[in-house]
Design goal:
460 residues, binds zinc ion
Length: 460
């Protein structure tokens, strides 16, 4: 429902109150006051002076996007390693424009400034379908959150660390520390204010929310993009809450000095600081190195670590959360090799993913989840800009596999036809998935590829 309809509906009830406008809430005067308040509150909560204190500014989406570009450029090689160096600025600009249109506040470490993006404030009322979110209370909450970033930068040079990170995995884990700590301090401050706990809960719902007007395939794509920010904000907050509960002293200093390097540590705080941070898994490097070599002439390769976060992203709300939780119980780890053509990275993609589970039964459960997910997508993508127009399911002949599924789909992506072959096998305690997108492949080739991975995993 759009804002206008919602407001109109409220007008017919006795509960109708006129929602304030962004221009009434965010003024030169209110920014000064709200920022000065936030400074005092964050200093008192953290016990650390914010020196130098940040300045504050009402800014347009374009100005914030420009500030974001400089921050994003060093992150692009981690997020898109196969992109040539001269394409990084354009990629950063594209991302910055996307974010700039949906951010409400932004701490810019380069200039020690908190930007208040008044142009976007109307979205507060639309996004979560709650017009009362467009309020001074939400503005107050947003500025506290940004002030914690300013505090972490003054105390720990937190934003300088980004340029020292080596992989996307480290970057996502570090983002969860930055956003998780900002949410942690914000929640503690609000808990002491009247109605603050409820405001914080409302504020949490804005993160990763997709505006109600967006539907079908576009909605799915936005949900995918948003799930990483949900991980950073929600799971990052849970990480700090768990460390506090464990009774650990000085855990904030400790985490900023020696941050977790993997996403699964954020999801399992008990693994933080242990020499062996997760369950031991089979080293897949010999297999992936050989697969990379085979196609090295024409394809760029990138290795992506799989964690529970990727599964949450992939499943979204297509299957019940309990099923996902059940399937992830026995999850030990996984990696996906992503191959893209050197001459035109956007043309096609080949994925080879392997997940290691606790035992054969757990691998079967994950296989079933993936199989059902594929079918749920057929239903979900019947309409919209991205449509699945045809799906055929068969099986593969793979020695040693308990179950296999071989799906061939035809997609319509904004008028362009794309063929996808997505095949999965459960082999002992592993699942193997091979996907060819817009790259022709014969069943025999897929079978040979899956067999090769299966033989490697079983030590043959
Ligand atoms: Zn933040």
């Amino acid at each position: 429902m759009n804002r206008l309809l919602l407001t109109a509906a409220f007008a017919f009830t006795s509960l109708f109150v006129r929602a304030e406008s962004a221009e009434e809430i965010v003024t030169e005067e209110s920014v000064k006051r709200v920022v000065a308040e936030a400074l005092k509150l964050v200093e008192a909560e953290t016990g650390a002076k914010i020196d130098p204190a940040p300045s504050a500014k009402i800014a347009g989406a374009k100005e914030v996007a420009a500030a974001l570009v400089e921050e994003l450029i060093p992150q692009i090689p981690l997020l898109q390693p196969s992109l040539p160096e001269d394409g990084r600025r354009a990629a950063a600009e594209q991302m910055a424009n996307l974010f700039g249109a949906s951010l409400f506040g932004k701490f810019a470490p380069g200039t020690n400034t908190i930007y208040v993006v008044r142009d976007n404030f109307h979205l507060l009322g639309d996004t979560a379908g709650q017009p009362d979110l467009l309020s001074l209370a939400t503005f107050h909450t947003i500025v506290i959150h940004e002030m914690v970033h300013a505090s972490d930068h003054a105390r720990f040079k937190a934003f300088d660390r980004i340029s020292t990170l080596k992989t996307a995995e480290e970057l996502h884990a570090w983002n969860a520390i930055l956003e998780g700590h900002a949410q942690y301090v914000t929640s503690r401050i609000l808990a002491r204010e009247e109605g603050g706990a409820a405001h914080f809960e409302q504020f949490e719902r804005i993160v990763g929310a997709v505006p109600p007007g967006v539907t079908g395939g576009e909605r799915m794509v936005l949900e995918l993009l948003n799930s990483l920010s949900r991980f950073a904000y929600h799971d990052g907050l849970a990480f700090f809450n768990a460390l506090e509960k464990s009774g650990r002293k000085n855990f904030v200093e400790e985490v900023f000095r020696d941050p977790p390097k993997r996403k699964d540590v954020i999801l399992h705080p008990e693994r933080y600081g242990k020499p062996d941070e997760g369950p031991a898994t089979k080293d897949l490097a010999p297999l992936f190195d050989a697969l990379k070599k085979d196609r090295a002439e024409e394809w760029n390769a990138q290795l992506v670590t799989l964690s529970e976060v990727e599964f949450k992203t992939a499943v979204g709300n297509l299957l019940p959360a309990e099923r996902l939780a059940e399937a992830l119980k026995g999850f030990h780890g996984g990696q996906t090799l992503v191959l893209t053509p050197k001459d035109n990275p956007g043309r096609a993609m080949i994925l080879i993913g392997i997940c290691e589970m606790e035992d054969e039964a757990a691998a079967g459960t994950l296989f079933d989840l993936n199989a059902d997910l594929g079918k749920a997508k057929d239903e979900k993508f019947k309409t919209g800009g991205i449509r699945i127009t045809e799906s055929k399911y068969g099986e593969l002949k793979v020695e040693g596999a308990a179950k296999t599924i071989d799906a061939r789909k035809t997609l319509d992506v904004n008028g362009q036809t794309v063929k996808l072959r997505d095949s999965i096998a459960a082999v002992d305690r592993w699942t193997i998935e091979v996907a060819f997108s817009n790259e022709p492949v014969k069943k025999k080739e897929v079978e040979a590829l899956v067999q090769r991975a299966a033989d490697f995993l079983r030590g043959k």
